[in-house]
Structures are given as C-alpha cells and as structure tokens.
C-alpha cells in the first residue's frame, strides 16, 4: 500500500467494485470497524450497481456498499457500508463515494435512501448531513457493543431538485 498523496487526488476514480477488489476492501473494513463484515458479505454485493470503490490504479482507497429494495413503487435505497482508508481521509473521497452511490441508487429506482450510523460517529454523521440526510429516529443498542444507532433518511426527489 502506498501513502496517500493529496496532490494525486485527481487520479482517484470511483467505479463499480470487482471481485479482485474484495481483499483490499476487507482489509480496509477490518481497519475501520470493530464489527467488520466477513468476506462472504461483500461477495453478495459484487453485482450491485451501488457497490463502488475509490481506486488509484490498483490501489483501493475506500468503498461504499448500497442497494435498493422494492417497496410498492416507493423503492428504498440503503447505504450499508462506507469507509475510506485512514491515511486517505479528509480528501473528499467519502463524499465522492456517497454521491456516486446516491446517483446509482437513483438510476436503480430508489425514491428515498436510509442508513444507520453510530451516535458517536461524528465524521460520518456530518458527512451524511452535509449531503442532505436528516436524522429520523434513534435505535437503542443497535450495535453489538450496545451503542445506539441513528437512522438517517434522504428523500432523493428533494436531493435532485436541490442540485438543479
Ligand atoms: C466517514 C468517512 C467515510 C469519511 O471519509 P472522508 O474521505 O474522510 O470524508 P470527506 O473527506 O469526503 O469529508 C466529507 C465530509 O465529512 C465530514 N467529515 C469528514 N471527516 C470529519 C471529521 N474528522 N470530523 C467531522 N466531520 C468530518 C465533513 O462534513 C466533510 O466535509 P468538509 O470536508 O466539507 O468539512 C471516514 O471517516 C471513515 O472511513 N470512517 C470510518 C468508517 C465509518 O465510520 N464509516 C461510516 C459508517 S456509518
């Protein structure tokens, strides 16, 4: 793995995840989370249009996993996982990944998008709020260590009308 060089941020592309990326994704996942997903969980999402990686060459710097579930014509997108390698943070990659995933979910037919985030995860909560997510409710002891989750929701219709 190479050190992230801010000046090379423009060389980073966001693209669909491939099977060949999964070991890098798993390595990042284990660095970032106390309850990391296993390899088999990522395998399930390889064909999802909103499983994306931020990569510089063959080097994976971050990823987002999201999908869309049918809901009687009001399909619901779900951001399930998002992480950027610690040394690559603060360069806009988390935001780029999230925005690409929102676009992919819009194309896949999602009307709203939801996600869960730890109440203590200030960087992620600020990122989500900055793109338009609103806290909807709190789920006590959602995580294995007993921490509460905040459910955040974004209405994609409003999101698009704000962008145009
Ligand atoms: C959350 C995470 C993906 C953000 O990635 P990143 O590449 O550093 O984020 P960006 O550089 O795109 O920053 C986008 C916004 O996030 C927020 N943010 C990022 N880092 C922050 C920090 N340390 N403190 C507060 N807000 C922060 C800011 O709103 C920032 O916007 P700004 O640059 O205009 O201030 C990254 O911190 C991470 O991987 N964390 C560990 C895994 C995790 O918690 N994932 C979320 C699970 S719900």
Structure description:
Helix content is 30%, strand content 31%. The protein is an alpha+beta fold. It has a single domain, classed as Aminopeptidase (3-Layer(aba) Sandwich). Strands 1-2-3-4-5-7-6 form a seven-stranded mixed β-sheet, with helices on both faces. β4, α3 and β5 form a beta-alpha-beta unit. The protein is globular and about 35 Å long. The mean pLDDT is 94. Coenzyme A (COA) binds next to β4, α3 and α4. It holds the Pfam family Acetyltransf_1. Keywords: Acyltransferase, Transferase. This is Ribosomal-protein-alanine N-acetyltransferase. InterPro entries: AcTrfase_RimI/Ard1, Acyl_CoA_acyltransferase, Ard1-like, GNAT_dom.
Order of helices and strands: EHHEEEHEHEEH
Q: Which oligomeric form is depicted?
A: single chain
Counting DSSP E segments of at least 2 residues, the number of strands comes to 7
pLDDT under 50 segments (min length 5)?
Answer: none
CATH superfamily: Gcn5-related N-acetyltransferase (GNAT)
Q: Specify the biggest β-sheet.
A: 7 strands, mixed
State the CATH topology.
Answer: Aminopeptidase
Structure annotation, total helices = 5
What distance separates the N and C termini? 39 Å
Structural class: alpha+beta
CATH architecture: 3-Layer(aba) Sandwich
Percent strand:
25-35%
CATH class: Alpha Beta
- Percent of residues in helices comes to 25-40%
Strand line-up across the major sheet: 1-2-3-4-5-7-6
Q: Measured on Cα atoms, how large is the radius of gyration?
A: 15 Å
Shape: globular
Mean pLDDT comes to: 94
- Total domain modules: 1
What ligands can be seen in this structure? coenzyme A
GO cellular component, one term: NatA complex
Keywords: Acyltransferase, Transferase
Domain N-acetyltransferase: 12-157
Protein name: Ribosomal-protein-alanine N-acetyltransferase
């Amino acid at each position: 793995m190479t050190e992230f060089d801010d000046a090379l941020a423009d060389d980073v592309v966001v693209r669909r995840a491939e099977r060949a990326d999964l070991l890098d994704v798993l390595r990042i996942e284990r660095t970032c989370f106390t309850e990391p997903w296993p390899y088999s969980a990522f395998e399930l999402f390889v064909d999802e249009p909103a499983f994306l990686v931020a990569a510089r060459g063959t080097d994976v710097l971050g990823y987002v996993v999201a999908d869309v579930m049918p809901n009687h014509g009001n399909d619901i997108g779900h951001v399930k996982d998002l992480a950027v390698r610690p040394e690559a943070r603060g360069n806009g990659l988390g935001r780029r990944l999230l925005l690409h995933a929102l676009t992919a979910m819009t194309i896949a037919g999602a009307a709203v998008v939801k996600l869960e985030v730890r109440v203590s995860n200030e960087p992620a909560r600020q990122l989500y709020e900055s793109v338009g997510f609103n806290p909807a409710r709190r789920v006590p002891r959602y995580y294995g260590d007993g921490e509460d989750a905040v459910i955040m929701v974004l209405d994609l219709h409003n999101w698009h009308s704000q962008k145009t």
